[in-house]
Design a protein that fits this description.
The complex is a heterodimer of chains A (113) and B (112).
Chain A (H helix, E strand, L loop, with lengths): L3 E4 L2 E4 L5 E7 L5 E7 L6 E6 L6 E2 L6 E3 L9 E3 L8 E8 L8 E2 L3 E5 L1
Parallel strand pairs in A: 2-11
Antiparallel strand pairs in A: 1-3, 3-8, 4-5, 4-9, 5-6, 7-8, 9-10, 9-11
Chain B lengths: L3 E2 L5 E4 L4 E7 L6 E7 L6 E6 L3 E5 L2 E6 L4 E6 L8 E8 L8 E2 L3 E6 L1
Parallel strand pairs in B: 2-11
Antiparallel strand pairs in B: 1-3, 3-8, 4-5, 4-9, 6-7, 7-8, 9-10, 9-11
């Protein structure tokens, strides 16, 4: 089955810890994205990557970091510098940055204890 | 003014009726328009995309686009309780990397 997987489904973090959220896709898509969703707000773009070894900041990149060493993988690290990290994190991919129909993974719900 | 605006709802319709979900956008250069369905606690699922003015039908769903009025809508015919979800409208300029901007969504409740 082709698709996007995210792990873990639920993640709990203590204040001051860095955590890494996994996103993998086997759709052979070039472009990948990370969004954050908070109650009552639209999806906000954290980072995106158009090709391997390249990524760009989105609207709310502060306190987050990413890497894109493989086409299939785009992990997101939530650092201790992110002041309010509790949210639903969504990874998405599209064929490329021009054909921009995005497909989402199942999401990771992060809670800071 | 928000870039993509949707009425948060809830929009309540009886089972079997037509549900009409509306979305307006502010960027006149927008070229690609998407509708996603999001069940509570789940991730968004693509329902339809539309690029040209007019109607696009897919099963019980019809997307309508009017670029002059900066308006896109989603009609759901023969609404079912399983259609109860939040529907997100998304818009982008397309061509090169252009950010997709999402609305906050309209919650639809289909009453049996």
């Amino acid at each position: 089955d082709g698709g996007i997987t995210q792990s873990p489904k639920y993640l709990f973090r203590k204040e001051g810890q860095n955590v890494t959220l996994s996103c993998e896709q086997n759709l052979n898509h070039d472009a990948m994205y990370w969004y954050r969703q908070d109650p009552g707000q639209g999806l906000r773009l954290i980072y995106y990557s158009q090709i391997v070894n390249d990524f760009q900041k989105g609207d709310i990149a502060e306190g987050y970091s990413v890497s894109r060493e493989k086409k299939e993988s785009f992990p997101l690290t939530v650092t201790s510098a992110q002041k309010n990290p509790t949210a639903f994190y969504l990874c998405a991919s599209s064929i490329d940055h021009i054909r921009d129909t995005q497909y989402f993974g199942p999401g990771t719900r992060l809670t800071v204890l | 003014q928000k870039e993509v605006e949707q009425n948060s709802g809830p929009l309540s319709v009886p089972e079997g009726a037509i549900a009409s979900l509306n979305c307006t956008y502010s960027d006149r250069g927008s070229q690609s328009f998407f509708w996603y369905r999001q069940y509570s606690g789940k991730s968004p699922e693509l329902i339809m995309f539309i690029y040209s003015n007019g109607d696009k039908e897919d099963g019980r769903f019809t997307a309508q686009l009017n670029k002059a009025s900066q308006y896109v809508s989603l009609l759901i015919r023969d609404s079912q309780p399983s259609d109860s979800a939040t529907y997100l409208c998304a818009v982008s300029r397309s061509g090169g990397y252009q950010k997709v901007t999402f609305g906050t969504g309209t919650k639809l409740q289909v009453i049996p």
